[in-house]
Amino acid sequence: MHPNSQRTVAARTKRGRHRIVLGYAAGVGKTYAMLVEARHRISRGQDVVIGLIEPHVRPETAALAQGIEVTPTRRIRYHDAVFEELDAEAVIARSPEWVLVDELAHTNVPGCTHEKRWETVEEILGNGISVVSTVNVQHVESLNDTAFQIMGVRVAETVPDCVIEQADDIVLVDVSPDELLERLKRGQVVQRDEVSEALTHFFRRTVLVALREQALEFAARAKH
């Protein structure tokens, strides 16, 4: 057991803090920002581990995660493929001060204890462990209809507003749509052979501008 993880049963009955890193699209830098924060916390002597992150095709993000302890994931075979999911039991057994968890709205594969990743996070928080998680604004349940109007596609994975409202901190990671599009064209958001299709679908500039507006407004409301 890590020396910093030896906490009393009484201390663990207190709910952990939940810090949500909010964005408006893949590639804005949510995971990167989460890892930068983790490194700052570690440098101050805090006990931080990775529960599950999604580096995608971004080597800079993957490099930033190097050296940070990773708790075991839960590996589940489903439809002849093996998927890795956040393992609450492994995180709780390790008992760090903070754990990093990407994509709060993610739907777990069948066979997991919880259907949604945010439910797994709630279990971890309930055991006195603090969480830094990431989510895009279109995955907030109350904004589902607005996101559909903007994108023309219904977002299937959402996080209940109560989960967002109960968060201790919501931090917005913001870049301009033009900068995000440049990152996309450089192959920093999706694979290069997927760039053309992305530019004509989700990553249309009008869509990005509208989603960014939603993220800015939502983050502003969350501060009050």
The general outline is: globular
* CATH class categorisation: Alpha Beta
Number of helices: 10
Give helix and strand order, one letter per element, not per position: HEHEHEEHEHEHHEHHH
Structural class: alpha/beta
Question: How much is the average pLDDT?
Answer: 91
Poorly predicted residue ranges: none
CATH topology: Rossmann fold
Largest sheet: 5 strands, parallel
Strand tally: 7
**Could you say what the CATH architecture is?**
3-Layer(aba) Sandwich
Give structural notes:
This protein has a five-stranded parallel sheet, sandwiched between helices. A two-stranded antiparallel sheet has the order 3-4. Strand 5, helix 5 and strand 6 form a beta-alpha-beta unit. The relative contact order is 0.19. The protein has one domain (3-222): P-loop containing nucleotide triphosphate hydrolases (Rossmann fold). It has helices spanning 9-12, 30-43, 59-65, 88-94, 117-126, 144-151, 161-165, 177-185, 195-200, 205-222, and strands at residues 18-23, 48-52, 74-78, 81-85, 98-101, 130-136, 169-172. With 224 residues, it is α/β, with parallel strands linked by helices. The protein contains ten helices and seven strands. Helix 4 runs parallel beside helix 5. 39% of the residues lie in helices and 16% in strands.
